[in-house]
Design goal:
- With 170 residues, this protein is α+β, with helices and mostly antiparallel strands.
- The protein has a single domain, classed as Microbial ribonucleases (Nuclear Transport Factor 2, Chain: A), CATH 3.10.450.
- The chain has five helices and six strands.
- It has a six-stranded mixed sheet.
- Strand 4 and strand 5 form a beta hairpin.
Protein backbone atom coordinates (compact mmCIF):
# COMPACT_ATOMS: atom_id res chain seq x y z
CA UNK A 1 0.00 0.00 0.00
CA UNK A 2 2.79 2.39 0.91
CA UNK A 3 4.61 1.65 -2.37
CA UNK A 4 1.45 2.38 -4.36
CA UNK A 5 1.06 5.68 -2.50
CA UNK A 6 4.65 6.66 -3.36
CA UNK A 7 4.07 5.78 -7.03
CA UNK A 8 0.92 7.94 -7.09
CA UNK A 9 2.83 10.88 -5.61
CA UNK A 10 5.71 10.44 -8.06
CA UNK A 11 3.32 10.14 -10.99
CA UNK A 12 1.45 13.29 -9.97
CA UNK A 13 4.75 15.18 -9.53
CA UNK A 14 5.87 14.04 -12.97
CA UNK A 15 2.63 15.10 -14.65
CA UNK A 16 2.64 18.42 -12.79
CA UNK A 17 6.26 19.17 -13.72
CA UNK A 18 5.52 18.26 -17.35
CA UNK A 19 2.70 20.79 -17.59
CA UNK A 20 4.64 23.49 -15.77
CA UNK A 21 7.63 22.92 -18.04
CA UNK A 22 5.44 23.11 -21.14
CA UNK A 23 3.64 26.28 -20.18
CA UNK A 24 4.52 29.48 -21.96
CA UNK A 25 5.08 32.77 -20.19
CA UNK A 26 2.15 35.15 -20.40
CA UNK A 27 3.94 38.40 -19.67
CA UNK A 28 3.43 40.90 -22.52
CA UNK A 29 1.24 38.55 -24.55
CA UNK A 30 -2.24 39.23 -25.85
CA UNK A 31 -4.94 37.21 -24.18
CA UNK A 32 -7.98 35.93 -26.06
CA UNK A 33 -10.31 38.50 -24.52
CA UNK A 34 -7.97 41.40 -25.25
CA UNK A 35 -8.24 42.97 -28.68
CA UNK A 36 -4.83 43.04 -30.42
CA UNK A 37 -3.43 46.54 -30.42
CA UNK A 38 -5.73 47.79 -27.67
CA UNK A 39 -4.36 49.59 -24.62
CA UNK A 40 -3.92 47.44 -21.55
CA UNK A 41 -2.54 47.64 -18.06
CA UNK A 42 0.63 46.02 -19.40
CA UNK A 43 1.09 48.74 -22.03
CA UNK A 44 0.56 51.37 -19.33
CA UNK A 45 3.26 49.73 -17.22
CA UNK A 46 5.63 49.62 -20.20
CA UNK A 47 4.92 53.27 -21.04
CA UNK A 48 5.71 54.26 -17.46
CA UNK A 49 8.87 52.10 -17.38
CA UNK A 50 10.67 53.25 -20.53
CA UNK A 51 13.48 55.68 -19.86
CA UNK A 52 14.98 58.09 -22.37
CA UNK A 53 18.47 56.65 -21.82
CA UNK A 54 17.24 53.06 -22.21
CA UNK A 55 17.91 50.59 -25.00
CA UNK A 56 14.83 48.76 -26.27
CA UNK A 57 14.22 46.13 -28.94
CA UNK A 58 10.76 44.64 -28.26
CA UNK A 59 7.63 45.86 -30.04
CA UNK A 60 5.74 47.17 -27.02
CA UNK A 61 8.77 48.84 -25.42
CA UNK A 62 9.85 50.57 -28.63
CA UNK A 63 6.26 51.69 -29.33
CA UNK A 64 5.94 53.10 -25.80
CA UNK A 65 9.30 54.86 -26.21
CA UNK A 66 8.17 56.41 -29.51
CA UNK A 67 4.98 57.69 -27.86
CA UNK A 68 6.70 59.03 -24.79
CA UNK A 69 9.77 60.66 -26.38
CA UNK A 70 8.72 61.04 -30.06
CA UNK A 71 11.98 59.45 -31.24
CA UNK A 72 13.61 56.03 -31.39
CA UNK A 73 15.75 54.70 -28.52
CA UNK A 74 19.48 55.39 -28.67
CA UNK A 75 20.28 51.85 -29.83
CA UNK A 76 18.66 52.50 -33.23
CA UNK A 77 20.55 53.61 -36.34
CA UNK A 78 19.25 54.07 -39.87
CA UNK A 79 20.21 51.69 -42.68
CA UNK A 80 23.07 53.85 -43.95
CA UNK A 81 24.58 54.20 -40.49
CA UNK A 82 24.15 50.45 -39.94
CA UNK A 83 25.95 49.64 -43.18
CA UNK A 84 28.90 51.91 -42.26
CA UNK A 85 29.01 50.44 -38.75
CA UNK A 86 29.02 46.92 -40.20
CA UNK A 87 31.95 47.72 -42.48
CA UNK A 88 33.99 49.46 -39.78
CA UNK A 89 33.26 46.75 -37.19
CA UNK A 90 33.82 43.68 -39.34
CA UNK A 91 36.22 44.89 -42.02
CA UNK A 92 33.87 43.40 -44.63
CA UNK A 93 32.11 45.23 -47.43
CA UNK A 94 28.37 45.45 -46.81
CA UNK A 95 26.32 43.55 -49.39
CA UNK A 96 22.93 42.85 -47.79
CA UNK A 97 21.14 42.49 -44.46
CA UNK A 98 21.72 38.76 -44.08
CA UNK A 99 22.76 39.13 -40.43
CA UNK A 100 21.20 40.19 -37.14
CA UNK A 101 22.39 43.77 -36.44
CA UNK A 102 21.57 43.50 -32.73
CA UNK A 103 23.75 40.42 -32.26
CA UNK A 104 26.46 41.52 -34.68
CA UNK A 105 26.68 45.28 -34.00
CA UNK A 106 24.61 45.94 -30.88
CA UNK A 107 22.14 48.13 -32.80
CA UNK A 108 18.63 47.94 -34.21
CA UNK A 109 17.73 49.37 -37.62
CA UNK A 110 15.17 52.18 -37.76
CA UNK A 111 14.38 55.74 -38.63
CA UNK A 112 14.34 55.45 -42.41
CA UNK A 113 11.35 56.73 -44.37
CA UNK A 114 8.54 54.28 -45.13
CA UNK A 115 6.99 55.04 -48.51
CA UNK A 116 3.57 53.33 -48.09
CA UNK A 117 3.57 52.61 -51.85
CA UNK A 118 0.77 50.06 -51.56
CA UNK A 119 -1.39 52.64 -49.73
CA UNK A 120 -2.29 50.13 -47.00
CA UNK A 121 -1.95 52.89 -44.37
CA UNK A 122 -3.65 56.29 -44.24
CA UNK A 123 -1.85 59.16 -45.99
CA UNK A 124 1.06 60.53 -43.98
CA UNK A 125 4.81 60.73 -43.55
CA UNK A 126 5.94 57.46 -41.97
CA UNK A 127 9.18 55.99 -40.70
CA UNK A 128 10.01 52.36 -39.96
CA UNK A 129 11.80 50.54 -37.16
CA UNK A 130 12.76 46.89 -36.80
CA UNK A 131 11.61 45.12 -33.63
CA UNK A 132 11.92 41.70 -32.01
CA UNK A 133 15.04 40.31 -33.70
CA UNK A 134 15.44 37.76 -30.94
CA UNK A 135 17.86 35.01 -31.94
CA UNK A 136 17.08 35.22 -35.65
CA UNK A 137 19.92 35.13 -38.15
CA UNK A 138 18.73 38.30 -39.91
CA UNK A 139 16.53 41.37 -39.39
CA UNK A 140 13.36 39.34 -39.71
CA UNK A 141 9.93 40.65 -40.76
CA UNK A 142 8.64 42.55 -37.73
CA UNK A 143 8.45 46.33 -38.03
CA UNK A 144 6.86 49.36 -36.45
CA UNK A 145 5.66 51.97 -38.94
CA UNK A 146 5.24 55.27 -37.16
CA UNK A 147 4.78 59.01 -37.41
CA UNK A 148 4.85 61.73 -34.78
CA UNK A 149 1.95 62.01 -32.38
CA UNK A 150 2.03 58.37 -31.27
CA UNK A 151 0.61 56.98 -34.53
CA UNK A 152 2.13 53.51 -34.70
CA UNK A 153 1.35 50.47 -36.82
CA UNK A 154 2.83 47.00 -36.41
CA UNK A 155 3.54 44.49 -39.16
CA UNK A 156 4.74 40.98 -38.36
CA UNK A 157 4.80 39.91 -42.01
CA UNK A 158 7.06 42.53 -43.64
CA UNK A 159 4.40 45.02 -44.77
CA UNK A 160 1.76 42.53 -45.95
CA UNK A 161 -0.64 43.57 -43.19
CA UNK A 162 -0.73 46.19 -40.44
CA UNK A 163 -2.33 46.57 -37.04
CA UNK A 164 -2.60 49.95 -35.34
CA UNK A 165 -1.17 49.94 -31.83
CA UNK A 166 -2.93 51.90 -29.12
CA UNK A 167 -0.48 53.00 -26.46
CA UNK A 168 -1.97 53.98 -23.13
CA UNK A 169 -0.31 57.20 -21.99
CA UNK A 170 -0.50 59.04 -18.69
Amino acid sequence: MRTAYIYIILASLFVNSFFVGCSTPTENTITEDEEPGSPSETSQNIYDAVEESGKYTARDSVAAYLCRFDKLPQNYVNKGEGQKLYESSTGNTFSKWNFNPWKTLGVMIGGDNFSNNEKLLPEGKYHEADVDYGNMASRGTKRLIYQSGCVIYYTADHYESFRKLEIQKN
